[in-house]
Amino acid sequence: MAHVKDNVELIDSKPAPKPGRWVSAVFVAIVAAFIGYGLVTNPNYRWDVVGQWLFSQTIVTGVIYTLILTVIAMLLGTALAITMAIMRQSVNPVLRWVATFYIWFFRGTPIYTQLIFWSLIPVLYPTISLGIPFGPTFATFETSVLFTAFWMACIGLGLNEGAYLAEIMRAGLLSVDKGQWEAATALGMPRSLVFRRIILPQAMRVIVPPIGNETISMLKTTSLVAAIPYTLELTFVARTKGQALFLPVPLLISAALWYMAITTLLMWIQSHIERHFSKGFERRNAEKKPGPSADAHTETAFIEVTP
Q1: Where are the alpha helices (DSSP H) in the chain?
Q2: Helices 93-108 and 57-88 meet at what angle, rounded to 10?
Q3: How far apart are the first and last CA of the chain?
Q4: Which positions ≥6 away from 257 have C-beta within 8 Å?
Q5: Is the dihedral of CA 113, 117, 119, 123 positive or negative?
Q6: Cα–Cα separations (whole angstroms), residue 112 to 153, 155, 196, 237
Q7: pLDDT score of 111 more than 90
Q8: What does pLDDT average to over the chain?
Q9: How far is residue 193 from each of residues 136, 150, 175, 181, 187, measured CA to CA in Å?
Q10: pLDDT band at 240 (very low <50, low <70, confident <90, very high)
């Protein structure tokens, strides 16, 4: 209904009906209900066995070692990524090309192939010697004793992850204006201090989201260490125990539930870290954003009527 006041017609605006939105929502809800009903009522899933083994010592041990693998691989990968990202931006051509080759090699070959290669290190190098090249040898180690399956898994995952994180780090560093470097250098600050106190904190706003995604991906990539083979990882122990009991599906469901629970926790932690590093940026955007106009939130439209 329209109202006229002082030659201005007030029109009560209403949102346009969108039946397609409701139809699609109902369709998706029906499909989800059918899938959920099938999961709950299908006796082949053996949910009683899932509950029995969900917190068993076998599964929990696999969860613990999977988390240890994830943490060590991400720490190693992050340290390598920071180093390679700095080397990629170095004026020294040797450092720049070494970093480029590292990233090219480990991104260009499948992680499963790399893990198989690491499992063959004791065959390729039965012993490792420390000493002066073409001179005396100070110590010799058996490679099979020094590099256990656990450490081969950590090194293989970490080296591969470092190549991917290096490009993420480099993108984050390039997102910081070069004027930050120039201003800090003009004040006499050393490059290491400029990087730690000025550049890296600002780059973290760009770096944190993809690193969070890579951490979640690494959690699931640990299932590939069976190529070494490493036998204490969650997927491996769940599959092995399931085959021994002739109940592979319930044991794998138990492992999947643990993966989803850990992923949910990691996503929650990631959101809080992102919020922490975006505080200053959001504040600057709020200061630059113009204030809303007086009629921005009015619910009626004003149309001038010519007398």
Answers
A1: 19-41, 47-53, 57-88, 93-108, 111-119, 121-124, 143-146, 149-174, 178-186, 191-194, 200-221, 234-245, 248-277, 279-288
A2: 150
A3: 20
A4: 50, 54
A5: positive
A6: 11, 13, 35, 18
A7: yes
A8: 83
A9: 40, 36, 18, 11, 12
A10: very high
221 with 111: CB under 8 angstroms?
yes
pLDDT > 90: percent of the chain: 43
Q: Give the C-alpha separation, 198 to 166, whole Å.
A: 19
For 175, other C-beta atoms within 10 Å of its C-beta total: 13
Q: Is residue 295 over pLDDT 60?
A: no
- What is the C-alpha to C-alpha distance for residues 125 and 145, in angstroms, rounded to an integer? 12
Highest mean pLDDT among 70-79, 181-190, 221-230: 70-79
Q: Per the structure block, which two tokens stand in for 295?
A: 């009629």
- Give the whole-angstrom CA distance, residue 199 versus residue 205: 11
